[in-house]
Structure formats: structure tokens, C-alpha cells
Amino acid sequence: MKFTADLHIHSKYSRATAKNLDFENLYYAAQIKGISLVGTGDFTFPAWISDIETKLEPAEPGLFKLKEEFAAPIDQTIPPGCRGPVRFILQTEISSIYKRDGRVRKNHNLIFFPEITSVHQFSARLDAIGNIKSDGRPILGMDAADLLALMLEIDDTGFFIPAHIWTPWFSMFGSRSGFDSMEECFGDLKKYIFAVETGLSSDPPMNWRIRDLDDVRLVSNSDAHSPGYLGRNASVFNTEMSFAAVRSALENNDPNAYQGTLDMYPHHGKYHYDGHRKCSICLNPASTAAMDGICPECGRPMTLGVLYRVQELADRPEGYVPENRHGYKHIIPLADILAEIFQVGPKTKKVTTYYNRAVETLGPELDILVEKSMEEIRSANIPLLAEAVEKMRSGDVRIDPGYDGEYGRVNIFTREEKE
Fold first, then answer.
1. How far apart are CA 116 and CA 153, in angstroms?
2. Is 301 helix (H, G, I), strand (E, B) or coil?
3. Which of 173, 181, 223, 304 sits at a 20 to 30 Å CA gap from 359?
4. Which residues are CB-contacts of 195 (< 8 A; sequence separation ≥ 6)?
5. Average pLDDT over residues 30-40
């Protein structure tokens, strides 16, 4: 069974998240987007695990579904072409801030369990170490390797994925607080990590340049802080729907069981290039190196982005393609495509109107972006949508790169093309 998963999200209890980031809205958004498996997010937070136990019930082994009493009213609002089963997998993100080898390290990691009993045991252990009640994504002074060891001690059928591994501030390889290798971060426990999350500002070809990542699967997720961002990055599986099957697909290098990722163009991510947001300085790595990483406006160190860090650790040339690696496809969120077409903001009424027309006529967003033919897309009678999707699929787009927390700007059409 082929399905799309988004395994890294948050709840309304995490900082800087939408107030409507609850299971009802996730259930709705997953169907509109075409996502069959969604992380629960934030399972260590007491109020959210209470919601998990109240609103979800066991489905296939190790997975959960929204209870009928909550799902039935929402089902009536889903366009018929978007309706499909949605399952949840127990997931959380932990922020570790600690000292190692004389440096402060800041790593974010994802943890998955098949049973709520394991979640309660894990949360109880963390609660004795630090404060898990102040934020949906708790910040703990716990070494990332110790966090992995604790997960294995609680339930070794769970799994552990380093999150957005290149983000400058909070990641395994981040320029500000990361390590130069997986072994440096996790030591002997590196063997228990079989997948890493590439993040919004990198894609598989960038990661293929790193020999240290040859033995792990590259996954991509939205890290959604609101329901509308669900599926902006995602991973594609072809397995039975169960926790063990998902885990096995990631642990074993089987390109049929784990089929790769759907990724925003990495330039679109908010840490792709180097720069200094306060000074509106955005630079490619070569320019940054020429300036020794110092902002030309204010004289302070710039934030070194993902591309800089990849080039710093790369032991293969740009364009290297390894054998037996999983596929990937670049996508641009449908709302951003419509905003480009109509020259308005992605959250405007006009975009919402045409977005609804698209999914009501054609089905889920990811099907439109990845699967539908140009003829089918034209049947929705949305000006230039088919042309925009065709250009997106071929890579014929221009992107002003993101930097230092600013998302990149996508340009699909030139003025002449649009006319």
C-alpha cells in the first residue's frame, strides 16, 4: 500500500504554533493534503497526551485514529475526492541543550513509540530530569546520546530520528551548535539511528555529498506549526499500515518499501543561504567565505546557512548520485503557487477560494502537485495552474534563497511568460 506520511509536527501547546493545531484540524488537513500518516507531535506535554488518550483510539498495530465521535462531523466537510483514512503515530520532538567538548550543543531529535504506556514511562523519566510542562517541545539539559539511550531503555521497538539536521541553531550538523559527524554526536549508539530528517533548507542531492549519511534513510517532514503547513515536506512509503512496517522500511534499505521524499525546493527554506536578517544581507557561501563570515553592514558574525555547512562537511562533489538511493520530488505548496499566479498573499481570500476549487475538483493537494496530468489540472479552470505545476515539476522556477530565518521567495513565471 503506497501512502504519504508527515512524521514531524507540533501541537497547539508548542511555542509559536497556531491555536487550532488540534487533532480535528490535523485530521481535516491531512485529507485535504493527501497525507495518510501523521505524527502526533508533543506527546511529552501533559495536556496533549490527555488529548491523545481522549480523542484517539488504537487502529492498525502501533498506530491510532481519530475516534468516530470526533471524525464524523469533519467527514461531512471533506470534498469527496479528498476523503481517505488518516492514522497517527506517537511522536515528539525534544530540544537538548548541553555542553560537550567545551562547546554548547543544541540538538533537536524526534522520538517515536508504538504504545502509550511507553510514552508515559518516557515522559516520567524526562520529568525527573527537567521541565516538560512549560512547552510542547521541552528543552532539556540532556546530551542527545543520553536521550537516545533512554529511549532504547524504555522501548527499543521505538525509533529515533535527528531532526532537521542542518539547521544552524538546533541540529546535529548545525553550523552554530552541531557536530561534524554522527559518531561525534552519538558515539557507539550511532548504530541505532537509521534515518535522519533533511529539513526544509536541504534536499537529498545535498545530503548525498556526505559519506557519513550513506547508511541512513533521508526523511522529509513539514515540522508544521499550523495545520495549513502539513505536507509541505513529506515521505512516501509502500508498506502495510503499521508502526513496525514504517520502522522496518526506514531501517532497511529497500527502495520499494521506502520510496523517498517530497521536498520544497531547498532555496525556499529559511536557512539555505548565509546572512544577517537585521541588515537584509543574504549571501552565497563563496561570498561569505570572502568576508570571513562577517556581516558587511554591522560587522557581526552572520548566520551560516545549510548550503555553507553542507559544503564544509561534504566529501563528494556537487551532483554526486549514489547507487540505490531513494527518489525525491521537488514541490511548491499549492497556496504559494496560487499566490504567485494572482500576485496576492498566500493567506488571502482569493487564494483560499481557488485552493478550495482545486481540491474540490481535482482531489488532495499533493495529488495535484505530483500525480495529476496537465489535462486534468486544466479541468479545474484555474488560470495558469497547469502551466505553473508543469514548470514546478520540471524545475523551471526561480527562487530568491532564504537566509537567517527568512523564507525564500518563489518566482514561477517571468512577466513575459505570464502575459
1. 15
2. strand
3. 223
4. 159, 161, 216, 217, 218, 219, 250, 251
5. 98
Cα atoms found within 13 Å of the Cα of residue 386, Cβ hemisphere only: 13
Cβ(275)–Cβ(402) below 8 Å: no
98-125 tens-digit pLDDT: 999 999 999 999 999 999 999 999 999 9
The residue whose grid cell reads 515540522 is: 223
Give the separation between CA 92 and CA 10, rounded to whole angstroms: 8
Cell digits of residue 360 = 474540490
Residues 135, 128: Cα–Cα separation, whole Å: 16
Q: Which three cell numbers stand for residue 301?
A: 558574525
Mean of pLDDT over the chain: 97
The band of 408, judged by pLDDT with boundaries at 50, 70 and 90, is very high
CA–CA gap between residue 280 and residue 354 (Å, rounded): 33
The answer to whether residues 87 and 37 touch, using CB atoms and an 8 Å cutoff, is yes
Please say whether the beta carbons of 100 and 143 come within 8 A: yes
116 burial (CB, 10 Å; 0-12 / 13-18 / 19+) is middle
Residue 100, SS3 per DSSP: strand
Rounded average pLDDT over 177-186: 97
CA angle 395, 401, 405 (to 5 degrees): 135
Residue 104, judged by CB atoms within 10 A of its CB (0-12, 13-18, 19+), counts as exposed
Contact 313, 180 (CB under 8 A): yes
> Residue 390 corresponds to which cell in the numbers above?
508543469
- Cell, residue 143: 546530551
- pLDDT bucket at 418, cuts 50 / 70 / 90: confident
Quick one: which H or E segment has residue 328? strand 328-331
Cα–Cα distance list, 134 to 15, 27, 48 (Å): 9, 26, 12
Question: What end-to-end distance do the CA atoms of the chain give, in Å?
Answer: 43
What phi, psi does 99 have (nearest 5°)?
-100, 135
